């Protein structure tokens, strides 16, 4: 096997015996209790579980927004525990795209300007940034809505802008926390289909937390959590 093949076969995300507790002693809350799984390139992994099962905690840890109490996380072969705060910031900026339930768009900016924000932070040249924005707007089906602000867009359209923004810096990993939570079932299904299509076309890995059983069919892999533990899949 060549080095190129080895890299391609390597999981994008490796979670090993991950634990996260809040507080100490008898009052400690154990949000994660020894979770282990892998997520591969070009695949959409759904994190399934009821509220309080540990999904958001897991996403925050994989995204470098929080530090585990034990275990380890590898992103594209990099151990997050070995990164300082500057290194984690660079990882989040350059390698990870985030999609939130509340969309997280800046209301005073147009759709195009919202998508361009991450590229401005990386000081991408204007011409290159604008070309990337046009490409992403077309990818999510909003080429005709570039100059509209979030308040002029439907919830589904806002989430499509959020997905395009998450892709702005060509991340290796997309993390989405209940991205359809504020959408009706039909719109939510369309957004999940878009996410799956983006995973295929862009070759990224996606971790998507959801409690909607109707969306599981669109995932390549299901990781189910219950009370901070992994539930074995049939």
Automatic annotation (TrEMBL):
Domain of life from the UniProt record: Bacteria
SMART domains, sorted: AAA (SM00382)
Keywords, sorted A to Z: ATP-binding, Nucleotide-binding, Transport
InterPro entries named in the record: AAA+_ATPase, ABC_transporter-like_ATP-bd, ABC_transporter-like_CS, ABC_transpr_LolD-like, MacB-like_ATP-bd, P-loop_NTPase
MF terms (GO), sorted A to Z: ATP binding
The ABC transporter domain, residue ranges: 13-234
Pfam families assigned: ABC_tran
Presence of keyword Nucleotide-binding: yes
Signal peptide limits: none
Designated name of the protein: ABC transport system ATP-binding protein
Native species: Kitasatospora paracochleata
Upper lineage: Bacteria, Bacillati, Actinomycetota, Actinomycetes, Kitasatosporales
């Amino acid at each position: 096997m060549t080095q190129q093949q080895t890299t391609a076969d390597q999981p994008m995300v490796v979670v090993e015996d991950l634990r996260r507790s809040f507080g100490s002693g008898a009052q400690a809350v154990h949000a994660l209790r020894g979770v282990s799984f892998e997520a591969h390139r070009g695949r959409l992994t759904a994190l399934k579980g009821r509220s309080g099962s540990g999904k958001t905690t897991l996403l925050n840890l994989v995204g470098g927004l929080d530090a585990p109490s034990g275990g380890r996380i590898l992103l594209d072969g990099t151990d997050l525990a070995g990164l300082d705060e500057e290194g984690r910031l660079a990882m989040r900026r350059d390698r990870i795209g985030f999609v939130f339930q509340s969309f997280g768009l800046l209301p005073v900016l147009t759709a195009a300007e919202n998508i361009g924000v991450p590229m401005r932070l990386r000081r991408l040249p204007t011409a290159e940034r604008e070309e990337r924005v046009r490409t992403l707007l077309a990818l999510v089906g909003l080429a005709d809505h570039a100059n509209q602000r979030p308040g002029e867009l439907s919830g589904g359209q806002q989430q499509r802008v959020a997905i395009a923004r998450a892709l702005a810096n060509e991340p290796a990993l997309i993390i989405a926390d209940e991205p359809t939570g504020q959408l009706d079932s039909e719109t939510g299904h369309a957004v999940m289909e878009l996410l799956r299509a983006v995973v295929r076309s862009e070759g990224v890995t996606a971790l998507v937390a959801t409690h909607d059983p109707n969306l599981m069919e669109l995932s390549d892999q299901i990781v189910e959590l219950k009370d901070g533990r992994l539930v074995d899949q049939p």
